[in-house]
């Protein structure tokens, strides 16, 4: 009986030790993971920068031009320490994982222009030049930088630029050939660049004088002075295309009719009034004359009685 109880106590003690050991191991794993994470967060990261071309969005080109990309990266260097590693930089136009996250660019068969700096260099750069580009060169080009320095992350730094190659297309303009507007109103002249690359810059001219920049030209309260021929000009790096529109300005019909009534209607009414007055006067004079010529009936009867 005593031995059984001793064995149960022994088993309970072993179980307690087992749980304690498991807890200690788990705690050690968590602490180690946090330490590793903290160390990784404390590591520096290379941040390459594309210095040419200086664009914030896609870089658009035309077939036949030369593509020139430049990339630069800086690294903190402690010159009191002699164990620095060189900076490796390369270009890639692939989305393959080895091109971005591997420290061995040779794993990517589309990596371009691999460069290596001196071990003590605090900066490095790489360039990529493609002459006579075609539409096949349209791609996303990534500049990648990596170093084996102990205080830098094992993950390479990278930055990308999208390159779009267009066909060279001459601009075509569409404008209304003739516009007729009433004086005092507004008019909108629109110059539409339906096709064309590189992107065109549109300007309006009248009598060889610059008027406005942009596709839409709005004139408020137009007058006869605004009438004439307006030229729309579309310009890009390779072509200039011109088109023209004629603006005609006419008087307001209602206003002209009112002026006509004032100028013509008033004298006509005056002559009509004078004519009517003269006609009435003549009628009255004739009536008086007729009354004097005719004998008075009562007077004629009295003369008959006397006779």
Structural classification: alpha+beta
Major sheet strand order: 2-8-7-4-5
Which runs of at least 5 residues are low in confidence (pLDDT < 50)? 33-40
Mean pLDDT: 76
Question: What form results from the Cα inertia axes?
Answer: elongated
> Using only CA atoms, what is the Rg?
50 Å
Q: Please summarize the sheet with the most strands.
A: 5 strands, mixed
Q: Give the H and E element order.
A: HEEEEHEEEEEEEEEEEEEHH
In words, what does this structure look like?
The chain is α+β, with helices and mostly antiparallel strands and 307 residues long. It has 4 helices and 17 strands. The protein has helices at residues 2-42, 97-101, 253-293, 297-306; strands at residues 49-52, 59-62, 67-74, 87-92, 111-116, 123-130, 139-147, 157-166, 169-174, 178-182, 187-190, 192-197, 201-206, 209-213, 216-219, 228-235, 240-250. A 5-stranded mixed sheet has the order 2-8-7-4-5. A 5-stranded mixed sheet has the order 10-17-16-13-14, with no helix packed on it. A 3-stranded antiparallel sheet has the order 1-3-6, with no helix packed on it. It starts with a helix and ends with a helix. Mean pLDDT is 76; it is low at 33-40.
Q: Key terms for this structure?
A:
about 300 residues; 4 helices; about 35% strand; alpha+beta
List the helices and strands and how they pair.
Elements: H1 2-42, E1 49-52, E2 59-62, E3 67-74, E4 87-92, H2 97-101, E5 111-116, E6 123-130, E7 139-147, E8 157-166, E9 169-174, E10 178-182, E11 187-190, E12 192-197, E13 201-206, E14 209-213, E15 216-219, E16 228-235, E17 240-250, H3 253-293, H4 297-306
Parallel strand pairs: 2-8, 10-17
Antiparallel strand pairs: 1-3, 3-6, 4-5, 4-7, 7-8, 9-12, 11-15, 13-14, 13-16, 16-17
């Amino acid at each position: 009986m005593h031995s059984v109880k001793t064995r149960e106590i022994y088993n309970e003690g072993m179980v307690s030790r087992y749980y304690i050991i498991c807890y200690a191991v788990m705690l050690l794993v968590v602490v180690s993971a946090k330490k590793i994470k903290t160390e990784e967060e404390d590591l520096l990261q290379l941040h390459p920068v594309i210095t040419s071309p200086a664009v914030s969005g896609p870089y658009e080109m035309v077939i036949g031009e030369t593509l020139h990309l430049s990339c630069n990266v800086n690294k903190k260097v402690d010159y009191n320490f002699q164990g620095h590693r060189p900076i490796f930089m390369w270009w890639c136009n692939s989305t393959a994982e080895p091109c971005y996250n591997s420290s061995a660019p040779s794993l990517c068969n589309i990596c371009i222009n691999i460069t290596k700096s001196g071990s003590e260099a605090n900066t490095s750069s790489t360039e990529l030049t493609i002459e006579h580009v075609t539409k096949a060169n349209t791609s996303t080009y990534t500049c990648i930088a990596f170093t084996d320095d102990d205080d830098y992350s094992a993950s390479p730094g990278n930055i990308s630029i999208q390159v779009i190659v267009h066909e060279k297309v001459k601009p075509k303009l569409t404008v209304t050939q003739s516009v007729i507007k009433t004086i005092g109103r507004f008019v909108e002249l629109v110059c539409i660049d339906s096709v064309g690359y590189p992107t065109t810059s549109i300007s309006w001219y009248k009598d060889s004088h610059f008027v406005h920049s942009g596709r839409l030209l709005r004139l408020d309260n137009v007058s006869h002075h605004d009438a004439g021929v307006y030229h729309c000009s579309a310009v890009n790096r390779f072509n200039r295309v011109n088109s023209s529109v004629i603006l005609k300005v006419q008087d307001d019909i209602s206003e002209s009719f009112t002026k006509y009534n004032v100028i013509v209607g008033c004298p006509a009414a005056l002559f009509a009034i004078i004519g009517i007055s003269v006609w009435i006067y003549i009628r009255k004079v004739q009536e008086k004359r007729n009354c004097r010529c005719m004998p008075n009936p009562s007077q004629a009867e009295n003369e008959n009685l006397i006779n």
